[in-house]
Each structure stands twice: as structure tokens, then as C-alpha cells.
Amino acid sequence: MILHAIDATERGATSLCIQSPDTDVLVLALWKYTSLCEETSLVFGTGANCRSVPLRPLYNALGPHVVAALPGFHSFTSCDQTGTICGKSKISCWNTLKKADEQGLEAFGSLGSSAQVTADVTEQLELYMCQLYMPCTCASCTCP
């Protein structure tokens, strides 16, 4: 779907509507938003329950660093196959991601870019898990 949307953009499309009920498509569409036309929306639901969500406001609100981390984060937290990662909800995982520093976001962004995970990425993902399960106990954590 995303590949076709990018192709349509390259061929001159000025607005796109991608219809899918799948969170994976939203994550990938946001991740590739800069390759899509500015007026790209995701359409969820059917019939009277149909809702169109423009990607530009989401992309701008999240920012490029968080958007770049989304595919790795989505995969790391079990995608949309389960509602939890070892007892932690997607909301808890998301709230912890929002507190991540640039290195943490880069670690999620690097997942899948090579067959090997570096020690630095592993360290950042371990720190994320510490912050998820034991907030304010990690050395780099700043608590309110």
C-alpha cells in the first residue's frame, strides 16, 4: 500500500487516501510521510463509521525523531498482535517512549536496518525496559 502511495506521489498525485484498519499501515505511512504527498490521509472503518485521519498533523505533532522510531518501537512492543508487552500496555509503552532521549529514539529507529544489533542499541533498549518497568530507578532517569 505504501509503495503504491509513494509511486502515485512520484507520478504527480496531490492528495491520497489510504484505507486500512491496520495499525501497521499507519506506522509505515507516518514513517514514509516525507515521501508521500502532503495531503495524505488514512481512512479507518467502513460506511457510516468511516473516519479520515490526515497524516500531516500527526507527523508534525510527533516530530521526525519519534516518527523515525515508530517502526522499531511498534515491532519491539509486539506490534498489534497483543495488547501488552510482558504485562505493560501499549499506553504505558508509548508514555515511556515519549520520555526517551534522542539516543533512545535512535535505537528504535535503527532496529531492522541491519542484521546485527549493536551494543549501543542493546544498551538503549535495556534502558527503555528499565524505565518501563521501574521508572525513576535508572541512572539517566529524570523524575518529576
Q: Which stretches are poorly predicted, pLDDT < 50 over at least 5 residues?
A: none
N→C terminal distance: 42 Å
Alpha-beta classification: alpha+beta
- How many strand elements? 5
Helix content: 40-55%
Tell me, what's the shape?
globular
Beta-strand fraction estimate:
5-15%
**DSSP helix count?**
7
Largest sheet: 3 strands, mixed
Along the chain, the helix and strand elements come as: HEHEEHHEEHHH
Overall pLDDT, averaged?
88
Strand adjacency order, main sheet: 1-2-3
Radius of gyration: 17 Å
Number of domains: 2
Could you walk me through the main structural features you see in this protein, from its secondary elements to its overall organization?
The chain has helices spanning 2-10, 23-31, 55-62, 64-76, 90-98, 102-110, 119-133; strands spanning 15-19, 39-44, 51-54, 84-85, 88-89. It has 144 residues and is of the alpha+beta class. It folds into two domains: 2-62, no CATH class; 64-133, no CATH class. Helix 2 packs antiparallel against helix 4 and helix 6 (102-110) packs across helix 7 (119-133). It is globular.
